[in-house]
């Protein structure tokens, strides 16, 4: 057996036998409960001496097992003895000790009894009703918790008696009614004597003397029958008061005399003297427990010292065992050094692999960016020429071939944008903007943009916007519109001859932040439950068994990732053949001050009679043609140059209202050309007309002095809106 295991076994052996030696047999709760019951019966019979003796024994046992409920019950019994012995201050002291331990437990029955007893002492013995009544109220609360109607009746009985005792009959009237109602249901003999007495007192107060006389006599009759000496004595006392009020002095004296005799029987002098001696013994026992506690602490310190010596011995043994292993450790040291060297080599290889992975990620980003740029440039030509053909030759508007060409070009452009978008999100390069926008206009723009898909599949699109949602909101409207565009286009694509609902509902407003729930609902083919998680994976497409639904499989992954940027998540509810519901919640800020700005932000009138002069710097002949045609068609004059050097030459001799600058040009790119233009103190606004993604070139464009960026292919309306804004802004400054 190895030395370390031997040491562990020695430690366990010492702990086991040390614990066994310290254990002693403790009393059981059953034994203590029996003692408490015995002490209670002795107290109720008037044998206070024996009751206190047994209570002292029971308390010792309860303290030994640390049972707070039993400790509280014993202190309660001791206090009750002192209460019966007319030592009310001691009774209050021990009742309070009982309450301290009771409050450490969950036993509401014990708490009820102690609070009721404290109420009795303060009200009936100390005559401090203002202090006793709150204890009764607390006792009632605990009675309700344990659903004990009998205890509630007893407590209400005490409250009634307390109020009647000081002549406050109206305050005790409700409690009396409750007790009478309880007795009608339960016929409890324990309260019948006092209940009749209290009814007699109340009737006497109400001057119903016949009823009062009946109740008092009934209380005395029942008290005599049931041998309830204490309650009987009080009944004679209260009846004597009633008779005195009626001026029946003889009977009043007789009843008062009976009351005195009964009290003498209850409180025999000999018993009180013996009980007082035992009460002193009980207090001495309290001091003894304190001394025992100190001695126990000394014993514990001694045991701790003894254990410390054992620990020192075991420590010495452990050191000896460790020395035995020292030689083995020295022998293994060389092997460990060799292992460390191998690990260092492996770590260097991991660092190299990590660098390669980072380089690969950069190359991937550059590849995606380059491919997207190279694809956008010819697509600009295809889309532009298609639009020109459709505008210049109206007879070709219904040509299926030309429309297919336009659709295919735009579909390919959408694919390029999706790939670039998902790549940017994964690299954490997307940051949400905070711009003011018109919420309702975004929905109608989406509906109009997708009208061709709705028409193709014979679908109807309905918009339902909660009127509580403000028109003007602040947020990233472009990403929000992209989310809506993807979800609505999916709904239209997978629905034939059906309906698509775009629903917006305000769910919460907090600190000017409006939480809006968006639902896109359709009655299309639906999604199987097994596929509902897959649809958010890249390049995954479901539901293509019979029909070919075009798509890249990137729309929903983009939606999910964009919503994560908004701090939201998308929820899908769908059933095959019945349709789907996509829902999410987005937060937008409301800023009413920007509403005027949105209202005044109207479309630019591109049919204006004023002619502006535009310089186009573009090296691609097809793009030159498209841009020239687009500008001249809208009554602008246009000059086109092939590169940056020619642009600088033209600007030496001519003035222009706006410059459209391509970025990726041979000889000198658009950034450098713009810098040189600004160096010549030419303030003409420059718009970068480029196939690069806007976010990739924004910083460099600003440093080069470029005023705005438009990504090709572009919307013609958007181009001329920016052109007019920049020209008018420049002229107003001048």
UniProtKB/TrEMBL annotation:
It catalyses: ATP + protein L-histidine = ADP + protein N-phospho-L-histidine. Residues 613-727 form the Response regulatory domain. The chain crosses the membrane at residues 310-330. Residues 370-590 form the Histidine kinase domain. SMART domains: HATPase_c, HisKA, REC. Residues 277-304 form a coiled coil. PROSITE patterns: HIS_KIN, RESPONSE_REGULATORY. Keywords: Coiled coil, Membrane, Phosphoprotein, Transmembrane, Transmembrane helix. The keyword Transmembrane applies. InterPro entries: CheY-like_superfamily, HATPase_C_sf, HATPase_dom, His_kinase_dom, HisK_dim/P_dom, HisK_dim/P_sf, Sig_transdc_His_kin-like_C, Sig_transdc_resp-reg_receiver. It comes from the Bacteria. Its EC number is 2.7.13.3. The modification 4-aspartylphosphate is found at residue 662. This is histidine kinase. The lineage of its organism: Bacteria, Pseudomonadati, Bacteroidota, Flavobacteriia, Flavobacteriales.
């Amino acid at each position: 057996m190895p030395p370390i295991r031997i040491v562990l076994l020695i430690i366990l052996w010492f702990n086991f036998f040390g614990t066994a030696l310290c254990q002693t047999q403790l009393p059981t709760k059953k034994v203590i409960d029996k003692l408490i019951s015995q002490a209670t019966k002795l107290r109720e019979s008037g044998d206070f001496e024996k009751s206190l003796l047994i209570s002292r024994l029971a308390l010792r046992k309860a303290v030994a097992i640390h049972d707070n409920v039993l400790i509280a019950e014993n202190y309660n019994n001791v206090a009750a003895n002192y209460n019966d012995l007319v030592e009310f201050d001691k009774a209050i002291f021990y009742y309070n000790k009982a309450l301290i331990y009771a409050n450490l437990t969950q036993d509401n029955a014990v708490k009820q009894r102690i609070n009721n007893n404290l109420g009795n002492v303060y009200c009936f013995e100390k005559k401090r009703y203002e202090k006793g009544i709150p204890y009764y109220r607390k006792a009632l609360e605990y009675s309700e918790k344990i659903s004990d109607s009998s205890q509630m009746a007893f407590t209400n009985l005490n409250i009634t008696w307390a109020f009647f005792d000081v002549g406050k009959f109206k305050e005790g009237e409700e409690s009396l009614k409750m007790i009478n109602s309880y007795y009608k249901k339960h016929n409890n003999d324990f309260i019948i004597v006092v209940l009749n007495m209290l009814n007699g007192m109340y009737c006497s107060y109400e001057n119903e003397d016949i009823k009062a006389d009946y109740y008092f006599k009934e209380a005395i009759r029942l008290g005599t029958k049931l041998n309830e000496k204490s309650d009987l004595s009080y009944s004679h006392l209260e009846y004597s008061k009633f008779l005195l009020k009626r001026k029946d002095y003889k009977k009043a004296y007789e009843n008062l005399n009976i009351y005195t005799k009964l009290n003498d029987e209850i409180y025999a002098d000999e018993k009180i003297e013996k009980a007082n001696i035992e009460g002193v013994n009980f207090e001495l026992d309290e001091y003894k427990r304190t001394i025992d506690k100190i001695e126990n602490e000394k014993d514990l310190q001694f045991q701790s010292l003894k254990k410390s010596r054992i620990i020192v011995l075991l420590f010495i043994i452990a050191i000896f065992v460790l020395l035995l292993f020292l030689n083995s450790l020295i022998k293994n040291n060389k092997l460990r050094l060799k292992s460390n060297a191998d690990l260092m080599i492996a770590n260097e290889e991991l660092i190299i692999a990590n660098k390669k992975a980072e380089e690969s990620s950069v190359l991937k980003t550059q590849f995606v960016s380059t491919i997207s740029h190279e694809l956008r440039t010819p697509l600009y030509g295809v889309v532009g020429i298609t639009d020109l053909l459709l505008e210049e030759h109206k007879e070709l508007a219904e040509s299926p071939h030309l429309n297919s060409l336009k659709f295919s070009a735009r579909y390919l452009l959408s694919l390029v944008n999706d790939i670039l978008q998902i790549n940017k999100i994964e690299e954490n390069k997307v940051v949400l903007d905070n711009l003011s926008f018109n919420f309702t206009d975004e929905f109608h723009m989406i509906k109009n943009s997708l009208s061709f898909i709705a028409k193709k599949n014979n679908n109807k699109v309905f918009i339902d916007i909660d009127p509580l949602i403000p028109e003007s909101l602040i947020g990233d409207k472009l990403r929000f519109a992209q989310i809506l565009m993807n979800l609505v286009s999916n709904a239209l694509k997978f629905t034939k001859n059906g309906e698509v609902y775009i629903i917006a509902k305000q769910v919460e407003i907090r600190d000017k932040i409006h939480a809006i729930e968006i639902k896109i609902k359709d009655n299309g083919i639906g999604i199987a439950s097994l596929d509902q998680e897959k649809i958010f994976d890249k390049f995954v497409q479901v539901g293509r068994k019979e029909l070919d639904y075009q798509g890249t499989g990137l729309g929903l992954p983009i939606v999910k990732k964009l919503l994560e940027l908004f701090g939201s998540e998308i929820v899908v509810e769908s059933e095959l053949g019945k349709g789907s519901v996509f829902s999410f919640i987005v937060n937008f800020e409301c800023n009413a001050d920007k509403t005027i700005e949105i209202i005044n932000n109207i479309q630019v009138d591109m049919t204006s009679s004023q002619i502006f002069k535009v310089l186009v710097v573009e090296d691609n002949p097809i793009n030159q043609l498209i841009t020239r045609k687009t500008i001249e068609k809208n009554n602008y004059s246009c000059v086109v140059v092939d590169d940056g050097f020619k642009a600088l030459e033209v600007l030496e001799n001519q003035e222009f209202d706006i410059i459209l600058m391509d970025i990726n040009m041979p000889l000198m790119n658009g950034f450098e050309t713009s810098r040189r233009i600004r160096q010549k103190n030419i303030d003409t606004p420059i718009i970068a007309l480029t196939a690069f993604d806007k976010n990739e070139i924004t910083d460099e464009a600003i440093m080069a002095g470029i005023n705005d960026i438009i990504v090709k292919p572009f919307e013609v309306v958007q181009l001329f809106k920016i052109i007019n804004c920049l020209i008018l802004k420049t002229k107003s400054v001048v």
